[in-house]
């Protein structure tokens, strides 16, 4: 995934400066995630980007290890944490596929807008499950452009990918995503859509002991 990191390094500063597209949906996802965290929890966020989610949830857990495979994203996130005086979040560059990176196990693992970027979803979910304690939770939010009615968006994404201004993207279907997470050893305990359009599947899944 090293080549993919170059794309995110290149767009990191623009990404950091961009406003959240649907702030209401994002706030709702944060609130529901917070409801599943405890003050004593040790949390891992995968694909943390420029750190917005980890910093928003810093007061909801004892510690958050936030990782991303983009060096520039981590630099920006670290600067934001320093400026905010947040010491309970540790940002580091790490690749999900490296089993030695943030091995855990953790009380909770978070992945916002990550699963649709995974070239091998079952393999990624297996690596995530290995980082969650039995009985712990996996919280994810994933764009599902494989749903009916989003053909035009898929064409646009394909065209953007062809000229190098969009990352590789899986066109996930909601039912297939839910089933894949269950097959990885999780029991889904909460489902939601944040946002409704484009479909952002929000899931809280408990790792089966």
Number of strands: 7
* CATH-derived architecture: 3-Layer(aba) Sandwich
| CATH topology heading | Rossmann fold
Dominant shape: globular
N to C succession of SSEs: HHEHEHEEHEHHEE
What value does the average pLDDT take?
Answer: 94
Runs in which pLDDT lies below 50 for 5 or more consecutive residues are none
- Give the fraction of residues assigned to helices: 25-40%
Helix/strand-derived category reads: alpha/beta
Strand order, biggest sheet? Answer: 3-2-1-4-5-7-6
What keywords describe this structure?
7-stranded mixed beta sheet; alpha/beta; Rossmann fold; 209 residues; globular
Can you give a write-up of this model?
This protein has one domain: Rossmann fold, CATH 3.40.50. The relative contact order is 0.16. The chain has helices at 2-17, 23-35, 52-56, 71-84, 121-129, 151-162, 174-183, and strands at residues 42-46, 63-68, 89-93, 106-112, 132-143, 186-193, 200-207. The protein contains 7 helices and 7 strands. Strands 3-2-1-4-5-7-6 form a 7-stranded mixed sheet, sandwiched between helices. The model has no long low-confidence stretch (mean pLDDT 94). It is an alpha/beta fold and 209 residues long. Helix 3 (52-56) links the parallel strand 1 (42-46) and strand 2 (63-68).
Concise description?
The chain is of the alpha/beta class. The chain has helices spanning 2-17, 23-35, 52-56, 71-84, 121-129, 151-162, 174-183, and strands at 42-46, 63-68, 89-93, 106-112, 132-143, 186-193, 200-207.
């Amino acid at each position: 995934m090293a080549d993919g990191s170059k794309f995110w390094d290149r767009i990191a500063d623009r990404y950091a400066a961009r406003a959240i597209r649907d702030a209401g949906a994002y706030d709702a996802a944060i609130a529901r995630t917070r409801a599943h965290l405890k003050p004593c929890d040790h949390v891992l966020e995968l694909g943390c980007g420029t750190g917005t989610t980890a910093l928003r949830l810093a007061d909801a857990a004892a510690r958050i290890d936030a990782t991303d495979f983009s060096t520039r994203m981590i630099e920006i996130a670290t600067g934001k944490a320093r400026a905010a005086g947040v010491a309970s979040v540790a940002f580091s560059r790490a690749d999900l596929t490296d089993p030695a990176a943030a091995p855990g196990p953790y009380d909770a693992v978070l992945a916002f807008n990550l699963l649709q970027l995974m070239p091998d979803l079952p393999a990624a979910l297996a690596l995530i499950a290995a980082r969650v304690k039995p009985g712990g939770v996996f919280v994810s939010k994933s764009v599902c452009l494989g749903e009916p009615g989003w053909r035009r968006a898929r064409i646009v994404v394909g065209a953007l990918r062809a000229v190098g201004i969009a990352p590789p993207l899986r066109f996930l279907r909601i039912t297939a995503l839910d089933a894949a997470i269950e097959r990885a050893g999780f029991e889904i305990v909460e489902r939601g859509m944040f946002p409704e359009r484009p479909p952002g599947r929000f899931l809280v899944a408990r790792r089966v002991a």
